[in-house]
Design brief:
alpha+beta; 15 strands; Serum Albumin, Chain A, Domain 1; 6-stranded antiparallel β-sheet
Amino acid sequence: MRMLLAGGNAVDAGVAAAAVLGVVNPYQTGLGGDAFALIYTAGDKRVHALNASGPAPAAATLEAYRAQGHTTVPRQSPLAWTVPGCVDGWAQMLSAHGKLTFRQVLQPAIEYAEQGFAVSPGDALSWSLSEALLKRDPEAARILLIDGRAPGAGDVLVQPDLARTLRLVAEGGRDAFYEGEIAERLAAYVKRKGGLITRDDLARYRAEWPQAIGTDYRGYRVLQCPPNGLGLAALIALNAVAGIDLAVHARHSPECWHVLIEAMKQGMIEAQHQVADPRFAEVPVGQLLAAATKPQGWSASTPAARAWGQSDTVYLAAVDAEGNAVSFINSVYEDFGSGHVAEGLGFAMQNRGAGFSLDPAHPNRLAPGKRPFHTIMPGMLMKDGEVAAAFGVTGGFMQPQGHLQVLVNLIDYALDVQSAVDHPRFWWEEGRRVVVEAGVPDETCARLAGWGHDIVRREHRGMGGAQIIVRLPDGVWAAGSEPRQDGCAIGY
């Protein structure tokens, strides 16, 4: 909000918010992580997709990992470190579409790092679940614990090392991070810890601006970032649902839930088998979208795939007075990334390299300079060539499932924006196992079980975190924010 009041636009506001979240939510995001964005520029009515995910280091070969006996990339090891991409992504967003300087945009984050912030109850709970992980790394324990314990609700955390790093970036831009003092210190730290990222890996990195992918759904155009992200899974699921008049069934009916579950399985299965860095492997996006088929009958399928566990991510959306819109997601992947904090720099190293396969036959197999399979996926909804909504749902493999359900709530059932976010969700885990939230009628669960679904009840935690801004028919903007975790909708 400070950026908008200072004359900035939605891009400035988005980058400023992402930087602040890297300070106050370090278990979810930070300078050691990656980012994806969809940016709508009102002046030319164009949507720009940003891929700021970092690649594997030049020394990260499949043969080297397998020679060490690994069948998967060790998740909390320096071998899971990929080049951090978000700082270059932020810089390119500001250069191409922002109004303010990096110094102006990073100032709020610097202040929170220098002066401290009070930890929220929700963040305190998440922090406590990672206390043992942080204790294993001396620098993480020094920076992110208070007297050897996870900070509790209301505790104030000050991060002087991170503040200094942010100041260097504010003054020197992306070069300070990828080629200057930060790069030198980061490369030396990685070498000491047994990782593979070098100064050359950092200096070579550039975020990219690929073409967004999309599909038509009930008169709207749904856009996602292309692979190596997971947005394709949501588009496949929407295509599978599009052939069914879903609204003839009540939203809480077993018929509606069954169709969505089976459609989501299609999307997730294809994504796990096909999504990879398109610079290294062909990803037949058009063929996969065209091949999506509507669920048949009322029997649960049993696919040989699974939706992996949760990850930690922050999503935000911003719209300005000119009508520009940003759908923006940042992440260090799992809790505090790899659990390692770069010495003297104050940020956690992501473990996104754990997204690679070590199967030589898989399109997503590890290779030098290759971007891993990514779960994070910002979404954008278009109507008549203009942005109708900027939206996203955090939560690892819950993200495409959340996208599908929120969009169906908005479009098929015409729920208002907050109700679309609040509505109970499912999470397909694997095979026939489906987790459903409290609030789903008992008779619906019983009917789904009768059709072969393995239904598991769960409270709200782990069911994703949605944020969304929509443009109403009269041109007014409205927003909805996730009640299941921290978040808010603000405007002026």
